[in-house]
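Lab notebook, design round three. We kept the backbone fixed and only want residue identities now. Task for the bench partner: fill in a sequence for the structure below.
Input structure tokens:
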């Protein structure tokens, strides 16, 4: 054997002292031992992934509507009319995504407060609920959220 094979590196010595086997491979998949494994973290709360996916889909759909509206802002009526089918489709997609977000179970109070915000911003017709009632409900949800955290 060559002399270099008998001269362990500092990493190998530290690993041996800690009881971690030396990984000879170069790929992450070849690494072994407890120090090379990701921590699983806390389990997700019920509905957390569904809520996150639904809210993400809504935010993406909302961004598409805003993108189209920004692209047509200040354009002539003919130019805006050319965008109308895309705008209607984007609004429909946003409405569908909003319905999924509202239907998804809120995994915590923060998500529930976000649902209230979405509800008042996008689902309830303006004037259907008196403005002071809406403001009181939203203020309550924000206040409770601050006290919960």
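Proposed sequence:
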């Amino acid at each position: 054997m060559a002399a270099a094979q008998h001269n362990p590196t500092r990493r190998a010595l530290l690993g041996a002292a800690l009881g971690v086997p030396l990984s000879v491979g170069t790929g992450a998949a070849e690494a072994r031992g407890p120090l090379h494994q990701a921590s699983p973290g806390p389990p997700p709360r019920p509905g957390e992934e569904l809520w996150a996916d639904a809210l993400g889909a809504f935010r993406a759909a909302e961004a598409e509507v805003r993108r189209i509206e920004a692209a047509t802002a200040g354009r002539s009526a003919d130019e805006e009319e050319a965008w109308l089918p895309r705008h209607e489709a984007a609004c429909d997609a946003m409405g569908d995504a909003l319905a999924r977000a509202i239907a998804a179970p809120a995994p915590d109070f923060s998500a529930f407060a976000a649902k209230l915000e979405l509800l008042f911003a996008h689902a309830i017709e303006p004037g259907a609920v008196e403005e002071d009632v809406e403001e009181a409900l939203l203020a309550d949800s924000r206040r409770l959220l601050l006290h919960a955290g």
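Keep this in mind before ordering anything: The two ends are 62 Å apart (CA to CA).
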